[in-house]
Amino acid sequence: MNFYILLLSLLFFLSSLVILYVSFLKKKLDFISQVPDSYRLLGTLLDGSDNFIGLINRSYTYEIINNNYESVFTDNSRPVIGNKVEFLWKNMEYEIFIKPAIDRCFSGEQVRIERELHSGSDRMVTILLKYIPVKDELGVVTHVIEVGSDISKLAQTEQKLRESD
Fold first, then answer.
1. Which long-range contacts link 36-43 to residues 24+ away (Cβ below 8 Å)?
2. Among the listed residues 56, 118, 52, 119, the one whose alpha carbon sits nearest the alpha carbon of residue 82
3. Bridge partners of 3?
4. What is the pTM of this model?
5. By the 8 A CB rule, do 54 and 82 touch?
6. Cα gap 145→137, rounded to integer Å
7. How far is the CA of 124 from the CAs of 33, 54, 67, 117, 149, in angstroms?
8. What pLDDT, in 10s, does the model give residues 113-156?
9. What are the residues facing 117 on neighbouring strands?
10. Which among 56, 67, 80, 145 could disulfide-bond with 132, CB atoms 3.0 to 4.6 Å apart, if both were Cys?
């Protein structure tokens, strides 16, 4: 008799655990089902920007980029995501300007630089690059957001004004 009471108690306990676990899973699945919409909306927001936006990790590798980034900086025959930052820049340009700017950003500083480069369509563009540190909950910089703006028309206008003086 005691054996049956113990067995029933154990079954009741196990069924309660199963119900709790299923309830937990349902809540977790409800949360997870909302995440893709957030990512989709974030992607739409980033792709709708006129800026070139990329996320760089501590190993100087691109993790995320928006559509404009790839169309301006590459000829689309080489993917940017998963590649090192230096693969987009000439070695001298990377070593002298880009890497030091990213290093300063990884030390917590927001950095702005202006550079000229050949775009994927092989035209010369002047871009304003802004590097923004991304910190974790402990305040450690884990990533850098790179935001580039094509300021070619502005640079051309400035050049014409200088020439006219």
1. none
2. 56
3. none
4. 0.68
5. no
6. 17
7. 44, 20, 19, 6, 14
8. 988 876 655 667 788 999 999 999 999 999 999 998 888 877 67
9. 125
10. 145
